[in-house]
Amino acid sequence: MRVGILGLQGDFALHQRMLTSLGVETRIVRSMEDLEDCASLVIPGGESTTMGGLLVRFGMLEALSARIREGLPVFGTCAGAILLAREIIGYPDQPRLGVLDIAIERNAYGRQKESFETDVLIPSLRDQPYRAVFIRAPIIRAVGPGVEVLAWFEDLPILVRRGHILAATFHPELTDDPYIHRYFLEQVASRLTVR
Ligand code: GLN
């Protein structure tokens, strides 16, 4: 079964490169039909307002939200995490999938720190630090019950999971460390063997 990558906008090609390097078959998803033979979906970074607007324009917002609620495993990075969130702080009308009980603030690190890389710990998953790349990143300000925080940076959650839904405020596709993608495939989307 393929892994779908939402390809309406943003850096979907880099997720495809990463997943291909893991030996996984991918499909760029631009319609609900494209999603049909996909076992899971990655929603890339980019611009969440544009991506959300395109989901509305292509009639995918409600249908995709329903598929995720029904159990489609999904991994949202940066703008993708924003689209998954229940609450986008300060933007109550911004289109979103609203499937993950977090409150997220867009572009929240301010100008000085707009884009940066740093080593973070993912204590529940592995011993070695992980190099996280942040680009105009959001901050997760609140997580609802049942949302597990897997990693923090400066005491704020940067990688969260609720069951089949995984969200990162950073860009794992911009490093050459496939760790987070592999975690998604093996632990969140499961039953996919990757090399
Ligand atoms: N700032 C972007 C937004 O609000 C997200 C940035 C990113 O995906 N790198 O959508």
Automatic annotation (TrEMBL):
InterPro entries attached here? Class_I_gatase-like, PdxT/SNO, PdxT/SNO_CS
Residues annotated for L-glutamine binding in this entry: G46, E47, S48, R106, I135, R136
Q: Quote any Pfam family the record assigns.
A: SNO
Q: What is its EC number?
A: 4.3.3.6, 3.5.1.2
Q: Does the keyword Lyase apply?
A: yes
Q: What Gene Ontology molecular function terms does this protein carry? A: glutaminase activity; pyridoxal 5'-phosphate synthase (glutamine hydrolysing) activity
User: Which Gene3D superfamilies has this protein been placed in?
Assistant: 3.40.50.880
Catalysis performed (reactions): L-glutamine + H2O = L-glutamate + NH4(+); aldehydo-D-ribose 5-phosphate + D-glyceraldehyde 3-phosphate + L-glutamine = pyridoxal 5'-phosphate + L-glutamate + phosphate + 3 H2O + H(+)
Pathway listed for it is: Cofactor biosynthesis; pyridoxal 5'-phosphate biosynthesis
A GO CC annotation given for this chain: glutaminase complex
**Mind listing the UniProt keywords for this protein, alphabetically?**
Glutamine amidotransferase, Hydrolase, Lyase, Pyridoxal phosphate
Q: Where is the active site?
A: C78 (nucleophile), H171 (charge relay system), E173 (charge relay system)
Q: Which GO terms describe its biological process?
A: L-glutamine catabolic process; pyridoxal phosphate biosynthetic process; pyridoxine metabolic process
Q: What does this protein do?
A: Catalyzes the hydrolysis of glutamine to glutamate and ammonia as part of the biosynthesis of pyridoxal 5'-phosphate. The resulting ammonia molecule is channeled to the active site of PdxS.
* Assembly behavior: In the presence of PdxS, forms a dodecamer of heterodimers. Only shows activity in the heterodimer.
What family, per the record? Belongs to the glutaminase PdxT/SNO family.
The protein depicted here goes by the name Pyridoxal 5'-phosphate synthase subunit PdxT
